[in-house]
């Protein structure tokens, strides 16, 4: 079948053996707690997907990366969502390394060489919507930074090697504070993981609670930036958010595509109905791919981020239209005799829960269209 052929070909070229490994595992096992999906991802070299090639990584382009995520999402939505958070952390480090003169490149080399998995401790789960505001308290010391705080939910909580967290530190060149990224070793005695995610949907993403209790992060694992405290985005944050929106959207499109793939395999469904499902999702994917292509050479990252958010919300609508229709067309017998249909129908709803929420961004996006600076809330 040619549906998803492009995405799966890119996955096979980028991460050899992963698609075969995932198809060899029962879908239910990939989506449960303790899923073997993260191990398969690590063994295929997945942690280095966004690490630049000159640092030993795969150096995937945005277009290649979003196709990889869609392909993975069609096999395991949990793995796609979990690895999006890893890639978000790596993309943040890459963005910092491009403007920093420190040793950030050594961290990126280690991620690729040792297949290290990064969980994201950034503040994207805050109930007050201030997703750019760090949740960790930081106390600078002569040896590094002491951190305390809680992140919940935190994907890859049980497979991570490092937890990335944003912190505010005193500026070395004057008053005020600046943003820094701390990489916290998962094996530190002050790091603990406790149950949090109680839903059956996306349980394989390991989205539990991570507690940081007075952990000393050495100076060589603290990456400073020039970003000052506040809500307005800078180029580094723009780049990281762009990657996140691109990959999380592709991941959920993959999950929806798995359901449409089931419908395409049923000759009981009319040709016109099957084609309508494909048109809806392929049109959505084309919009996502347009953002990915523009990321490689477009200079106005704020305009591109706005467009990426608009595309993401449009994809949510496309999924909301295609998935219930696919479930209906597959019929009650498929729903009753297999968990797969019901599971995918539930899992795709997760896209609407990732930040920034559409309702919260309505005002900022309209304000940007009116000529003001783009803010994320």
Automatic annotation (TrEMBL):
<dbReference type="InterPro" id="IPR037069">
    <property type="entry name" value="AcylCoA_DH/ox_N_sf"/>
</dbReference>
<keyword id="KW-0560">Oxidoreductase</keyword>
<keyword id="KW-0285">Flavoprotein</keyword>
<dbReference type="GO" id="GO:0016491">
    <property type="term" value="F:oxidoreductase activity"/>
</dbReference>
<dbReference type="InterPro" id="IPR009100">
    <property type="entry name" value="AcylCoA_DH/oxidase_NM_dom_sf"/>
</dbReference>
<protein>
    <submittedName>
        <fullName>Acyl-CoA dehydrogenase family protein</fullName>
        <ecNumber>1.-.-.-</ecNumber>
    </submittedName>
</protein>
<keyword id="KW-0274">FAD</keyword>
<dbReference type="InterPro" id="IPR046373">
    <property type="entry name" value="Acyl-CoA_Oxase/DH_mid-dom_sf"/>
</dbReference>
